[in-house]
Structure formats: C-alpha cells, structure tokens
Design brief:
heterodimer, A: 110 residues, mainly beta, 11 strands, globular, B: 114 residues, six-stranded mixed β-sheet, four-stranded antiparallel β-sheet, 10 strands
C-alpha cells in the first residue's frame, strides 16, 4: 500500500459546484495532516491543516478519520481560481518529514 | 529573507556533469527539506536537516546525491555524474518546527539533463 493515495482525477466541475476529494494513508502512527495546493509549474502551497475534530476555512472543509486512515477535503461554491492540483500530506514514520500524495487535479469551468 | 529562495531557477546540464543547487531558507527556520518532483509525479522526499542534528538522508536515491547545510542556514544539493533520469524540479522547503508543521516551499530549480 502506498503511503498516501489519492484519486488523480481530473475532476471537472462547473462554477458553484461542491466537490470532495479523498485520501488514504498507510501509517497509522501519523500525527500531522495537511492539504496543499499546487498550481501548474508552481511550488506547492499550504492550503490548510487537518485536525481530528475537522476544520473549516471559508469554503474549504477538511475531515480526518483516524480509524479508517482517511482524509477528505470539501470545496463548496467552486471558483475558477480553485482550479489546481490538491495534495494530501501526512508526516512520515519517523515524524521528521512530510509525505505527499500525487495529487488530485481539479478543473472548474464557467 | 521573506521566503525560501532557490537558485538557479533553471539549469540545463550535459549527462555526466556535476550540478549544485542552492537553497536559502526563511530566516530563523531550523528545519530544511529537499524534495524533487518529476514530470507528472508526486513530490519525492530526499533529505531533511534539523538544526545541528545529523541529517535524515533516507530519501536520497543514490550515492551520486549529497547535500550539506552550512551554518544552519543555506543548503546545497549536489548531484554528481548527472543522468537523464535526474531531470526534475528540485524543491527546497523550510519550517520552524520539527517536521510536524507545514512547510514553505521555494519556487524550485528545474533541472534538465541532456
């Protein structure tokens, strides 16, 4: 099982749609979880941390299910500017570095 | 500096040559990481520096790859005898934590081996 697995997509949605991405991770001892966003030919940028109780930042909601080793990201009222690749990230076995999924590509159209 | 700075932004080199990539982390960040991203692929962890501790080199793909961090700040990633499969974007990141906090990435060095 890969350390972090994501559906690569692409997800093609119209403006205003709600879209959800899922991610699974293999290391049950992971303690840190994040979603990053990466635009084409740019570096990844931190979108939000993911907390056990779930957390929301504007139109973005992240959820963590430790028992199932599953992380999700929900985007409401999609904007054209949300088009990007979304990377699911967890810390490694040693807790020293972050392991990145290959990403899920979102394309929002008008 | 205000952000993580990497140089050069682009590098084209001939197969077999050595290259050096530089990273200047955010001032005060004790942790520094190197990743690489091949075309259409995810980020691959290479090496991690934390303060004066011995680096975690577990991600380096071969002994042609090495990195150092001088004075706890600037880091250099060296690739010896480059091969075409080394072509990728090499990304440096820094953080103020121990690896459990989010990172700030530099804009990367795009390496092309011809």
């Amino acid at each position: 099982r890969k350390e972090v697995e994501q559906d690569p997509g692409p997800f093609n949605v119209p403006e205003g749609a709600t879209v959800a991405f899922n991610c699974t991770y293999s290391n049950s001892a992971s303690q840190s979880f994040f979603w990053y966003r990466q635009d084409c030919r740019k570096e990844p940028k931190l979108l939000m941390s993911v907390y056990s109780s779930g957390n929301e930042d504007g139109r973005f909601t992240a959820q963590l299910n430790r028992a199932s080793q599953y992380i999700s990201l929900l985007i409401r009222d999609s904007k054209l500017s949300d088009s990007a690749t979304y990377l699911c990230v967890v810390n490694n076995q040693a807790g020293t570095a972050l392991i990145f999924g290959k990403g899920t590509t979102l394309s929002v159209s008008s | 500096g205000a952000g993580v700075s990497q140089s050069p932004s682009n590098k084209v080199t001939e197969k077999g040559k050595d290259v050096e990539l530089r990273c200047d982390p955010i001032s005060g960040h004790t942790a520094l990481y190197w990743y690489r991203q091949s075309l259409g692929q995810g980020l691959e962890f290479l090496i991690y520096f934390q303060g004066n501790s011995a680096p975690d080199k577990s991600g380096l793909p071969s002994d042609r790859f090495s990195a150092e961090r001088t004075g706890g700040s600037v880091s250099t990633l060296t690739i010896q005898r480059t091969q075409q499969e080394d072509s990728a974007v090499y990304l440096c990141a820094s953080s103020s934590g121990d690896g459990a906090t989010g990172y700030t990435f530099g804009s990367g060095t795009r390496l092309t081996v011809v």
